Amino acid sequence: MTEHATEVETDESSSACPKWCRGCGPNDPMHRGFLATVGREDTGWISTQLLLDRFERRGLAVKLDATRSGATQAVLFSLAQLDRLIYELTYARLMMMTKGLPLEGHDERH
Questions:
Q1: Measured between alpha carbons, how far is 54 from 17 in angstroms, rounded to an integer?
Q2: 8 Å CB contact between 8 and 18
Q3: I need a labelling partner for 106 at 20 to 30 A (CA). Which of 3, 19, 32, 82 fits?
Q4: Is the pTM of this model over 0.70?
Q5: Dist. CA 108–CA 105, nearest whole Å
C-alpha cells in the first residue's frame, strides 16, 4: 500500500479501497475518485479523476479526458505535471480577469 492510501475501508471480499474511491470493480486495476466534468456539449468538455493503481505499479495520478465531437483523448498527469497545469491555468485565469492587461500595471479605477 502506498503512503497516499493510508485510510481504507474494507468490504465483504476483504479488498481494501481508499475512502475516496468511487468506482473500482473487481476487474478494474485502478481506484477512482474525485470525478469532475466541466464544459458544454457544443464546445467540448474536460473530465478529471484521481487514479491509484490497485497493484501499486505506479503512484497516484490525475487522469484528464478531453472530449469534443465525440472523440476523447486521455492524459495521465504526475504530481509535477499537475502542478504545472494548475500554474498555467491560474495564470490564464488571471489574464482573463484583468482582460489581458499586465498584472503589475493593472489599474482598478477603470
A1: 8
A2: yes
A3: 82
A4: no
A5: 10
* 107: in domain: no
The label of the residue with cell 474511491 reads: 21
Instruction: Give me the number of domains the chain comprises.
Output: 1
Q: Which domain holds residue 63?
A: 3-97
Q: First and final CA of the chain: distance in angstroms?
A: 55
Q: What is the pLDDT of residues 30-39, one digit of tens each?
A: 888 888 889 9
Separation between Cα atoms, residue 78 and residue 22, nearest integer Å: 20
109 assigned to some structural domain: no
**pLDDT per residue as tens digits for the range 65-109:** 998 888 889 998 988 999 999 999 999 999 899 988 876 655 554
Contact criterion met (CB below 8 Å) for 33 and 46: no
Neighbours of 20 (CB within 10 A): 14
Instruction: Give the Cα separation of 63 and 47 in Å (integer).
Output: 8
Residue 58 counted as domain residue: yes
Residue 19 lies in a domain: yes
